[in-house]
Amino acid sequence: MAALGLLLATLYSGAATPGSATEATELNAAPQAAQVVRVAEFLAECPYSHRLPDDPIVFPGLPGASHMHSFFGSRATDAHTDVTELLGSSSTCSPAVDTSSYWVPTMYRNDQPVEPTGTTFYYLGEGVRDDIIQRIRPFPLGLRIVAGNAKATGVNDPTSVARWSCLHHGEVNPSKDFVNCPAGSMLESYLDFPQCWNGTDLDAPDHKSHMSYPVNGACPASHPVPVPKLRQVLRYPVSGSTQGLRLASGPGYTMHGDFFNAWPENELARRVTNCINVIVKCGADGNPS
């Protein structure tokens, strides 16, 4: 976790404000039985479930209309998925109560699919001021978000927001495109979803405009409701040359992620209250770790 914290600090330097939740080494000074790390965080570990050329956000009701996606979390996700189906589904996630669906374009190496063996979804308070962290609200049930751009045109395209790096090899500079990782390492993808909601819509025609990234540590007036920052971290068993490596959507800079929220409302609310709002680091069970 120390290595991950160092890498995240490198990737997202400048996003934090003094005294913010990203200061992972700061401990809560209040006397208590056990000190807790003062980081606004809980997480879900959601291993790979299945692959389909479906996308129930962008192409709802149209099986086979999308490029190939790799799904995590709910085992039921397909083109016809709605929130009711997700709530009643089984999940690969720990905790199993998270029946949300997460998906990304499938990775291929020499036209053979490669699935991540590390799949962590962090729910964070960082990116906004502490006083705003205290006002973060749970995602509304059924919220759909897309981060990144499957049609990004290059590494200089501002809509390409995912980063690639190498596990335990910080000397390899992160990039929007695939990077060459030393033998024994793994190729990692980091993607932050927007954390400001317009307070009204569960989706939008472009699947993005109902959400916004913070500006100067606060949510803009157009998107006044702060929600947790979802950070998708995937680790692929890939190292060495990037030749023959691609995503179903294209080069590495087309990496994108989809999130369809189906957390039971009480479970999500408990985690936001007990972990995010009070700036405490929690594990998958939603309790201080």
Automatic annotation (TrEMBL):
Keyword Metal-binding attached: no
DUF1996 domain mapped to chain residues: 55-263
Database matches in Pfam families: DUF1996
Transmembrane segments: none
Residues in the signal sequence: 1-21
Keywords recorded for this protein, A-Z: Signal
Domain of life of the native organism: Bacteria
PANTHER family membership: DOMAIN PROTEIN, PUTATIVE (AFU_ORTHOLOGUE AFUA_6G11970)-RELATED, PTHR43662
Protein name from the UniProt record: DUF1996 domain-containing protein
Biological source species: Streptomyces cinnabarinus
